[in-house]
Amino acid sequence: MANNNIKKVKATDIELKERMVAVNRVVKVTKGGRIFSFAAIMVVGNENGIVGYGLGKAREVSTAISKGTEDAKKNLIQVPILKGTIPHAQEGKYSGATVFMKPAAPGTGVIAGGAMRAVLESVGVKNVLAKSKGSSNPHSVVKATINALSKMRDAYTVAQVRGVSLDTVFNG
Known about the structure:
Helices cover 29% and strands 37% of the residues. The chain contains 5 helices and 9 strands. It has helices at 61-73, 114-123, 138-150, 155-162, 166-171; strands at 7-9, 17-30, 33-45, 50-58, 76-78, 90-94, 97-103, 110-111, 128-134.
């Protein structure tokens, strides 16, 4: 199932804020001993509808974080945001993680846990109700959240795709 409405964005000329979701220490065992390295999951966004995620691996934490940030800047997508919340309820899946998000009234805040919260705050959502089901692996939850956000469409886009006016979209 290909999602054709994903808008890819270039990182040039955009002020992006980075958030670290998780850092994982991984070990490679060789006959000479253990080799430690780090994997960092990073989320970047301009808090105005643009978000991306990336994974960086290196021997030092700081290098892994910078590699993750660079990777995240290569995977940016545009997300519609209406009055500080998402346009409609949406579910997203990746591997064993399933996330569900629905719009919330002003003043609600971001009701979401861990990895989902980092993605939603980076994209600029101020009010949302979100639930993560299944796997709590941060990598899977971030990808499921990005998947759900990439499926979001505002009323103007729906009207354009259907070839009708905005009034027809709302009034049927």
